[in-house]
C-alpha cells in the first residue's frame, strides 16, 4: 500500500483520544512510507491526521471542494492540495488516489464516504481494503448494525467481512495488507435467495 485515504471528522469531538489517535494514524502512515489522502482541511480530526503525517516527514494529499475552502479551512502546508467542484468528485478523486481506506470517528460525511466505498467494493468496482479504527468503541453500534443486517438476510456475510475493524492502527494496517477481496458478487439468483 502506497497511499491510504482517511475519512474522519472536521471537528475534534468530545473525547481527546480521537485527536490523539488521528495524529498517531498520520504519524504511523508516514513512518511506514504510506502517503495520506484526506479531505484537505486543517481543522478537527482531519487536521490532526494531516499534521501527524507531515510532522513525521510524510506526504499528504488533500482533496477539497471549492465550496468548502472557507468552511473547512484548507490546509496550506500539504504536499499537494487538489481542488474539485463537488463532493462526488472529491470521493471519486480520493478513491482514484488510494490503495485502501481507513475511517476514524466522524459524523454523517464520514459514514457516507465509508459506505460509498463499501458499496463500490460490494459491486466489484474496486478491490481495496476498507477499515475502521474503532477508537474507544466508537463504531461498536455500527458493527452491531451490520451483524443485524446479515442475520436478517439483507447483507451477505462475505460482504459484511469486507469491513476490517481494529482499535489499533498497526493491527489495522496488517489486516489491510493481508486483505483478500470476496470473489462472490453482490447479485444473487432466485435459487440462492
UniProtKB/TrEMBL annotation:
<comment type="similarity">
    <text>Belongs to the LOG family.</text>
</comment>
<dbReference type="InterPro" id="IPR031100">
    <property type="entry name" value="LOG_fam"/>
</dbReference>
<keyword id="KW-0378">Hydrolase</keyword>
<protein>
    <recommendedName>
        <fullName>Cytokinin riboside 5'-monophosphate phosphoribohydrolase</fullName>
        <ecNumber>3.2.2.n1</ecNumber>
    </recommendedName>
</protein>
<keyword id="KW-0203">Cytokinin biosynthesis</keyword>
<dbReference type="Pfam" id="PF03641">
    <property type="entry name" value="Lysine_decarbox"/>
</dbReference>
<dbReference type="InterPro" id="IPR005269">
    <property type="entry name" value="LOG"/>
</dbReference>
